[in-house]
Amino acid sequence: MGILKQIFNFYINSSIHVALAVVAMTWVTSIEFGLDCDYNVLFFVFFATITGYNFVKYFGVAKFHHRSLAAWLRAIQIFSFFAFLGMSYFALKLNINSLIYLSVFGLVTFLYAIPLLPMRYFRDNQKNLRQISGLKVYVIASVWVFTTVFLPLIEKEYPFNIDVVINAVQRFIFVIVLMLPFEIRDLLYDSVKLATIPQRIGVRNTKIMGVLLLLVFFFLGYFKDEITSEVIISNSVIIIITLFFVIFAHKNQSKYYSAFWVESLPILWLVILLMLH
User: Fold this and answer.
1) CB-based contacts of 86: which residues, under 8 Å, 6+ apart?
2) CA-CA distance, 147 to 141, in Å (whole number)?
3) Which burial class, exposed, middle or buried, applies to 101 when counting CB atoms under 10 A from its CB (0-12, 13-18, 19+)?
4) Per-domain boundaries in the chain
5) What is the tens place of the pLDDT at every residue in 223-247?
C-alpha cells in the first residue's frame, strides 16, 4: 500500500492529474464544435500543463533549496524536464498563429511565478503575479480558457463567432467554480493579504456564488446559435455534480477532496460527452 500511495501522490503532486483535466476540457471543446480530435494539440496541452504547473508550484522551493531537495521534488524536476521536451516537440507541430498566442500566455505563466514587477503594486511581501490580491483565480481561469477553448479552435482555423465567445465565458465561469473548493481549503494557510474569494466574502457566500455561477453557466448555453441535446445533457449532469462538490467543501476537507476529486470533474465531463456521442 505504501508504494501505491507514493505513486498516487506523485501522480497528484507532479500535476499529471490536472494535466489530464485540462486535456479533457480541450477535448470537450472539440466535441462541442464538431471538430475532429487533434492529438497534437492534446499532447501539447498535456505536457505544457505539467511544465507550467510544476514551474509555478515548485520554482520558489527549488530556487532556495537546490542542494538539499527532497527525493520527491528531484523526481518531479526530472519528470518536468521530460514534460518540457514533450511540450517543445508537439509545439513544433502547431501552426504559427497558435504559437504566437501561446507565447503571450507563456509569458503570463512566467510572470505568475517569477518576481519582476515593482513592489508598490503588491500588498504582500512577494513580487510575483501569484501574490497580487485576488488575482490568482482569474489568471488561472484565463489561461485555462485560452488553452481549452481558443487553442483547439485556432489550430483548426475555426471562425470566431458568438458561440465561441459564449463557450469561453462558460469555461471561465466553470474554472472559477472549480477553484472555489481549493480556495476554501486554503483558508487555513493563505495569508489574509491575498484577499481570496472566501477571505473576502466568507465560505457561505462563496458557496452561494458558486451556485449562481453554475446557473449562469447553464443558461448561457441557450444563447448559442447551435447547441446539441448531448451538450445540454452533459452540461446539466456536470453542473449538478460540481454543485455538490462546492456545497460540501469546507476548510478541513480531506487531502484529496479538491486535489483529486474536484480536478476529476473535467475528466468526468469528457466521459459523459463521449458516452452521449
Assistant:
1) 43, 46, 47
2) 10
3) middle
4) 2-276
5) 998 888 999 999 999 999 999 999 9
